[in-house]
Amino acid sequence: QLQLQESGSGLVKPSQTLSLTCAVSGGSLTSGGYSWNWIRQPPGKGLEWIGYISPSGSTYYNPSLKSRVTISVDRSKNQFSLRLTSVTAADTAVYYCARAGMSLGSYFFDYWGQGTLVTVSS
Amino acid sequence: EIVLTQSPGTLSLSPGERATLSCRASQSVSSSYLAWYQQKPGQAPRLLIYGASSRATGIPDRFSGSGSGTDFTLTISRLEPEDFAVYYCQQFGNSPLFGPGTKVDLK
Prior knowledge:
The complex is a heterodimer. Chain A is an all-beta fold.
């Protein structure tokens, strides 16, 4: 059974960089045609897709966050990471990592981590 | 840029009742790229429906999805106590996008 687990700093100061890692177990990041995604949810609000990285290492980001986001992969550790620079209070959210799967031409987020709360505060 | 709108914002129902949730896109969306998720407090979203109408693995058949173009529907035929949650539609285009959600709560 595939499992995803987020880790990283739960408290980040304004203007600094948020860094999170998603460890994948029960499967390989490099197998299959899956993409590996970050999604966030501010407290009490809806879901916002941040971006993804493919097994080949190509990335695609939400245009609204593109200038501040970097997603990278460490194949040796079977994990992928998120960096978000110049954070403000608006970046306070639960951050999820998720796999995008595909079946019969349909795409969807089928496996999710449990989420980790990141608070931006001085 | 596609915008997803979900209605109603809150649906107050009793166990055993039928729930009908709407998701409307500002422009046509491929049915292949439309999914529904359920989220309970403190939990990650769970995939219910993909391809507008296909149930994900392990999802009970009281959940069904339909629609095409700009109008999609999630139906829960008979609400069970564990179905009270927030439901999100999502389109999987170049830039995946979630709707604002519909909360199904206890009447």
